[in-house]
């Protein structure tokens, strides 16, 4: 696994079925590609400096996946700009007909209580639950490790 800045050359396609990572000043982002979808995990903080690149990357994933899981369980902070990023990813997934699931951390849950009182983001409690939902939907499933 390599760690790099988010660039066009760092963007892989699902066909690679690879794991990639990139680092910002406050977070590490990892993507695990499966046969028909991806898990994008964030560890650390999503703030004004990295929310845009995170959203850009996740939106690009949505364009070439049947399903996308945003694993935010390890986030210790997410600002309102991070919530805006999540909304933009959700909109792209809807437009691309990509099934989106978000695994929140306590920090994400706190922001969502304020910014998303109608609970529009599709939350799941764990990666196992997200992958089970993908399997139930009849979409092909490949274990993500």
TrEMBL record:
List, for all copies, the residue spans of the domain called STAS: 39-134
Question: Pfam families per the record?
Answer: STAS
Q: Which Gene3D superfamilies match?
A: STAS domain (3.30.750.24)
What protein name does the entry list? STAS domain-containing protein
What organism is listed for this UniProt entry?
A: Mycolicibacter senuensis
């Amino acid at each position: 696994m390599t760690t790099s800045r988010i660039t066009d050359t760092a963007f892989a396609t699902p066909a690679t079925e690879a794991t990639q990572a990139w680092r910002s000043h406050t977070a590490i982002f990892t993507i695990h590609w499966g046969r028909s979808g991806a898990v994008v995990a964030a560890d650390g903080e999503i703030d004004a400096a990295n929310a845009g690149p995170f959203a850009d990357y996740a939106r690009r994933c949505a364009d070439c996946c049947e399903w996308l899981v945003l694993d935010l369980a390890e986030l210790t902070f997410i600002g309102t700009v991070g919530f805006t990023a999540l909304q933009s990813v959700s909109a792209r997934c809807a437009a691309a007909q990509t099934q989106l699931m978000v695994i929140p951390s306590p920090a994400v849950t706190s922001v969502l209580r304020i910014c998303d009182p109608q609970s529009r983001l599709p939350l799941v409690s764990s990666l196992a639950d997200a992958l089970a939902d993908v399997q139930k939907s009849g979409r092909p499933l490949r274990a993500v490790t």
